[in-house]
Write a structure and sequence with these properties.
The chain contains four helices and no strands. It is mainly alpha-helical. It has one domain. The two termini are 24 Å apart.
Length: 153
């Protein structure tokens, strides 16, 4: 069944976000099924529709989960003293040999910190402006392709 949607013509009609949550929950845990004690699936955020609010929360949960996994891997790599085989800076500075992740962050040059913040900021900006936005018909958690030019923000 096709519906006319000015934001994304020729897109198949999707079930409501709440119905999709209930289906995923039932499939994931047939004993507990759908459990939402905080009623987040029935709230609206920032004057958006319920579906948009659910997609916002789903996208945020996926994004924070990815950041946590990346941080965990980084912590494990650092704790095992694994570094790149080359020098850290063009001037030949080695990677810091410290015992904790916060000490490592403090030991790297400011330019390296700004590189990290800049790359993460660019990826965040790009995911918000390129492709089908997760609150406007796109899929939460899906990073847009660089070649994608549709902008449904």
């Amino acid at each position: 069944m096709l519906t006319h949607n000015p934001l994304s013509p020729n897109q198949e009609a999707l079930p409501s976000a709440r119905a999709e949550l209930e289906a995923i929950a039932t499939k994931s845990n047939p004993v507990l099924k759908f459990y939402d004690p905080l009623q987040l699936s029935s709230t609206t955020i920032y004057d958006n529709t319920n579906d948009q609010s659910i997609n916002f929360l789903r996208h945020a949960e996926i994004k924070h989960g990815r950041v946590a996994m990346f941080a965990f891997v980084g912590y494990i790599v650092h704790a095992n003293h694994i570094t790149f085989p080359w020098k850290m800076t063009m001037s030949g500075d080695p990677f810091p040999s410290v015992t904790s992740a916060p000490e490592a962050w403090d030991a790297i040059p400011a330019a390296a910190k700004w590189q990290i913040i800049g790359v993460v900021g660019f990826l965040e900006w790009f995911s918000e402006v390129a492709g089908d936005h997760y609150m406007r018909g796109g899929e939460p958690g899906r990073f847009p392709k660089v070649s994608q030019t549709t902008n449904n923000k």
